[in-house]
Amino acid sequence: MFARNLGRRTRIYLYDRTLQTSTALASARNRRNGNPRIFPDDVTETYATWTRCVRVCNVYSQNLSTKVTTVVPNPSNVHQYDGSVSDSTGNVYFVTSGNRCGVRVKVLRWHIGDPLPYTVVAAISSGYDVTFRTATFNDGTNDNVYFDRVRCAGKFYSDIYKVSAADTA
Amino acid sequence: MLRRTWLVGFVVLLTLLGVTGTSQAAPLTPTLILGGSTDQILPDANASFIGWTQNSKAHPRHHDAFVQPLSGGAPTGSPMKLNTGTTFGWFGGIRPDVNEAAYQQTNARQTQSDIRIVDLDVLPLAPTSPPGLNTRGWEFRPSI
User: Fold this and answer.
1) Using CA atoms, how far apart are residues A77 and A2, in angstroms rounded to an integer?
2) All domains in chain A, ordered by first residue
3) Does the beta carbon of A2 lie under 8 angstroms from any beta carbon of chain B?
4) The whole model's pTM is what?
5) Average pLDDT, whole number, for chain A?
6) pLDDT tens-digit map of A79-119
7) Could you give the ipTM of this predicted complex?
8) In chain B, which residues have their Cβ closer than 8 Å to the Cβ of A115?
9) Which B residues, 21 through 60, put their C-beta within 8 Å of a C-beta on chain A?
């Protein structure tokens, strides 16, 4: 999966390595400065996830077999972004936050299709945020979630963290 | 006091009803995997490798894509840079079952951006351009 910025729009594509063809999954108009409002997050054998930001950011997940796209429920209408999925458990991991960098940042878990509530996998210290990505790797037993964490001050350095056995929180 | 008691009760009720959207299970503590006084961003990993994007103190606006072997979940050995020469590299993703990674590579002027795929088990690394994928447009943020 990848994105292509077309100037006015950005489209997310699924690339078939056998057929060598690309299929559009989603798209959104860019901001006035040309920056995208939509970003590919993660692809697995079963799911493709992406984040689309209009008034708030939301995480979308498409079952690649059924072509059914699901938006991760967002009852509080807050920013939800940087999703990743584990095929083994059917869990999607994503980030939620307030309107500013480093405000009420949490890594959450939702089993696709289940009713709420979410599970808080990790709370990020105040003044820190997730920079660009969560990435989930199932080691055969548990989901392990990697993410980049930025300090919302100073030189805005980012480091890489891992939540081991994130499905056990 | 009465008001506070009422408020606490209301929040507990909302939580029980799932209206706040999150359950109260004990969160886990993240572990630092890669750090330092530069940027480490855009991670992905499988059992054998971790990949990420990093700049340097000397060139904070220049980013390169790296992979490094994992041993017991910790990076070991030397990082291997994926993008070539003076290009910029942005790590994309790594397959969970095979040591194969995708990343974004832009030219030094950052006027052209393409996707590359690389087999991490074949040294020296020999990234390839997926047939029919890259155009004159700006391809970015690959996942595999």
Assistant:
1) 27
2) 37-168 (2.130.10.150)
3) yes
4) 0.90
5) 95
6) 999 999 999 999 999 999 999 999 999 999 999 989 999 99
7) 0.94
8) 18
9) 21-47, 50, 52
User: Which of A4, A137, A169 shows the shortest C-beta gap to B25?
Assistant: A169
Contact yes or no for B41 and A133 at CB 8 A: yes
- Which ranges of chain B would DSSP assign to H, the alpha helix? 2-17
Residue A46 forms contact with B (CB below 8 Å): no
Q: How far is CA B50 from CA A137, A163, A168, B74, in A?
A: 11, 14, 22, 9
Q: What is the mean pLDDT of each run of 10 residues along chain B (144 residues)?
A: 36 39 77 93 97 94 96 94 96 97 96 97 96 96 97
The verdict on A59 touching B (C-beta cutoff 8 Å) is no
Tell me which residue has tokens 């008001």: B3
- Say whether the peptide bond before residue A117 is cis (omega within 30 degrees of 0): yes
Q: What angle do CA B51, A119, B26 make, to 5 degrees?
A: 95
Q: Is A135 in the B-facing interface, judged by CB distances under 8 Å?
A: yes
CB contact under 8 A, B40 and A147: no
What is the rounded end-to-end Cα distance, in angstroms, of chain A?
Answer: 29
Beta strands (DSSP E) in B6-137 are 31-34, 40-45, 49-54, 64-71, 74-75, 80-81, 88-94, 100-106, 113-119
| pLDDT tens track for A132-145 | 999 999 999 999 99
